[in-house]
Write a structure and sequence with these properties.
- The protein is of the alpha/beta class.
- The longest helix is centred in the last third of the chain and has 14 residues.
- The two termini are 16 Å apart.
């Protein structure tokens, strides 16, 4: 069975890389990028994550704008916003744009794993599982 692919988008690269390493230890395949533009370049090169962990507040392309681009690129990718600067309004806006969930930093890794697994299941499982179902 293929590993669930996770794309982490956060302008705080130390946080993104550390989270990626923690997820790899839990049997996920991860990539970490520093912003929405870099993420879109990766997606356009056909690296397809099952779940995206997305920071809300980033310079340039913010989280909600990146969410819109990700969903336009592939509506099946589930997106979870992780933020330390959230508000109810931004959470509601995200949900209206197809967000799977909205979590506040710091996040408990166990809680995050549960949310990632739920999002991957909603997306139809891992990429290889979706291919088998076609």
């Amino acid at each position: 069975m293929s590993k669930t692919k996770i794309l982490i988008i956060d302008d705080e690269m130390e946080f993104a890389v550390t989270l990626a390493e923690r997820l790899v230890l839990r049997e996920f395949e991860t990539k970490a990028v520093g912003g929405g533009e870099e993420a879109m370049t990766l997606l356009q090169k056909n690296w397809k994550p099952d779940v995206v962990l997305l920071d809300l507040k980033m310079p340039g392309l913010d989280g909600l704008a990146a969410l819109d681009l990700i969903k336009k690129h592939d509506p099946a990718i589930e997106v979870i916003i992780l933020t330390g600067h959230g508000s109810t309004a931004s959470g509601i806006a995200g949900m209206q744009h197809g967000l799977f969930d909205y979590l506040m930093k710091p996040i408990d890794i166990g809680e995050l794993i549960v949310k990632i697994k739920e999002a991957a299941k909603k997306a139809g499982g891992t990429i290889s599982e979706r291919s088998k179902n076609k």
